Structure formats: structure tokens, C-alpha cells
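Researcher: Please translate sequence to C-alpha cells.
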Amino acid sequence: MTEHRRGEWPAGLRPVPATPAPRRATPPPQGPPVEVPIPDVRLVVTVALTGRYGDSSDVSRDLYEQTIRASDCHTAIVRVGEDAIRKHFDLSHAIAGRFFLSAKRIEVHVPAGTRYAYIAAEVQRHVRLMCVDHGKTLANLRTPG
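Model: Translation complete:
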């Protein structure tokens, strides 16, 4: 054993002298920020009401089943057949009601000819009425508290 006095390091050991921390290198000069283009993605739901239907409830059920997962989309494309138009009394109202809050654009494709061209105009009219009614409802809501 080596002798040491109080306050001395034993066996000739000495504390390691503090070395200054290495200086950080200056960062390289920055160029202009890089812009990564974000692709324009539009979600589209396509509904085909072109089959044979027994009554209006079959048309409504088919419309509901095909749009159950279409909660938010940019464009709704609805292909309508003659049978669906004849069986469902107010098909334009049903289509508008299904998409007026979730789609920014609703396209209605009807069979060729002017006989059924009114469906698309009716959908537009119903969407406008529903949006106005929705806006009035939101304006009349009171904030809690």
C-alpha cells in the first residue's frame, strides 16, 4: 500500500486535465429550400344503378350498399339505368342526399336521349337546397356555454 495524505491522489494518480470540447464545424451553406411537388389526388366513387330492380326500396338499398364506405370523396359518378329511374320515384333526391356533404362534384350519367336528362338537373337543384338548409341549420346552432 502506498502512503497518501488526505487530499492527495493515491499511487501517483492525478486527475485528467480537462480538454476543451471540440469545436463544431460550421454548417455548410444552405441553398434555396427544396419543394417537393404533391400530386393532385382526387378520390372518386362510382355507383352503378343500372341493374333490374323490383321496387324503389331495392334501388335505395343498392345505392346505400354501394356508397356505405364513400364517406369523403371529391367526385361521385352515378350511372343510372332506365329501370332505376322508373322504379324510384325521387331518385334525384336520394342521390343528392347521399353525396351533398361528402362530394365536391356529383356526375349523373343517364341513358342516351333527352327523356332522362332532367335527372342531373334535379340532383343539382336538390344539392343546392340541401346545402342552403344545412347552412341555415349550422347558423342557428348556439355555442354551448
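Researcher: Any highlights?
Model: The chain has a mean pLDDT of 83.
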